[in-house]
Amino acid sequence: MSLREKQAIARRHQMLNAAEMLIRQDGTTEFSMRTLANVSEVSTATPYNFFGSKEGLLFALLSRSLKSFIDEGLVRSSEDPIAYAVDTANNAATILLRDPVFLRPLYQVMLGLTDPFHHPKFLKEAFFYYRAALEPANESKLFKSEQEKDALACSLMAHFMGVLDLWVHEDIDGEWFRAQLLYGFIHQLWPFAKGKSLKILQDRNEEVSKTLSKRRYRPSFFG
Length: 223
Description:
The chain is mainly alpha-helical and 223 residues long. The chain is built from ten helices and no strands.
């Protein structure tokens, strides 16, 4: 790698770090590109040269966050393939709830923008998480085909995105967020569970249902 390439990578990280700092500082993504350039100590044109637009910058920040998200969230925690898939939902909740100041406003961007280039690209990257979560079950021949596995992965992602939207807009609290994520994963995986896997799901469903039944965790729109 040439010195120029190394300098470009360092400058890119410098601007992404500055964007993260600004989000943490103000709790929003409403900073201007001029402010970002000033904080990054680069010219006003440099962020546009690297990212094309503010949307491009924010999606680059999302992608960077997703990489560490995947590395931690997909750590194998159970030999049972169905339990592992549920664990990936719990891991994701833990990661998000650990850093709401930064991740809430950042994921509002992903949920709120329909950028024709960056949004589909990010969703493709994110879909890897759900496919990987189901791979042990696929290796155990719990699905009839790759198409069935992918359909379930897409359904799990849709469920996750829906609950995530409620959390990032503070319509639900952290306990309800985690419990609702797990509830959805458990019930979508239920038809594929047998024997030990089914018993694990039954036990986890009972535990999650207790949380969801507690009135203090219920969101305001329940009435």
